[in-house]
Amino acid sequence: MSVFQKETVLSVRHWTDSLFSFTATRDPGFRFQNGQFAMIGLEVEGKPLMRAYSMASANHEEELEFFSIKVQDGPLTSRLQKIREGDIILVGRKATGTLITGNLIPGKRLLLLSTGTGLAPFASLIKDPDVYENYETIVLAHGCRQVSELAYGEHLVDGLRNHEFFGPLIRDKLVYYPTVTREPFKNRGRITDLIASNQLFDDIGQSGLDIETDRIMLCGSPAMLEELPAMFSARGFVEGNHSQPGHFVIEKAFVER
């Protein structure tokens, strides 16, 4: 059996000149936990060209969804951004990744901190009913350079707020905090700085970081993945993994596609 399965592209949506998302069929045998990633890609000159991508769809959904940047000279994304409905993509049969709730010790507030396409695994997690059962509050922070780059996240959250099942859950528990660094917007600044200054928590009307209650997931830029863990560790937070749950977890598989 091949380590990859062939799936058919069902839809493609270009959000900006640098961001797009797409859906594809899902093999009934493909299993994953919300927050995990798989290797996906295209067959190029008879060989698979693969990169790690988080599932932006939840594990209870029949279709797969992915959220991607466009790198014009990127080996994969220069090709992947041109896919259309009906095209074939390759999806690895094995899902993995550290951004799963089982890698965190129990807490009350879950902070999902992302930049750019690092939002993808959290798109999966905020569609997981168990997350709302296990936490009193979920804060989804998404940092981008420009306002237009927030469109996918805004569409995602709006859809869930109007969803028959998730709407009631989200109204009471999910706090969405978009922020940009290069344009005027209601929230301005890097997520790292907004947490260090407590501005993020002030803006949402909640208390600051608390090791007793806060659990944190991180996915995004190399700078954020370097600075925030150092900040958390200095405050006594311990990084979790598959063998030992902790206060925060990091996904490092998506630095360059």
TrEMBL record:
The keyword Cytoplasm does not apply. CDD domains: FNR1. This is ferredoxin--NADP(+) reductase. Its EC number is 1.18.1.2. It comes from Bradyrhizobium betae. The lineage of its organism: Bacteria, Pseudomonadati, Pseudomonadota, Alphaproteobacteria, Hyphomicrobiales. Residues 2-105 form the FAD-binding FR-type domain. It catalyses: 2 reduced [2Fe-2S]-[ferredoxin] + NADP(+) + H(+) = 2 oxidized [2Fe-2S]-[ferredoxin] + NADPH. PANTHER family: FLAVODOXIN_FERREDOXIN--NADP REDUCTASE, OXIDOREDUCTASE FAD/NAD(P)-BINDING DOMAIN PROTEIN. Keywords: FAD, Flavoprotein, NADP, Nucleotide-binding, Oxidoreductase. SUPFAM superfamilies: Ferredoxin reductase-like, C-terminal NADP-linked domain (SSF52343), Riboflavin synthase domain-like (SSF63380).
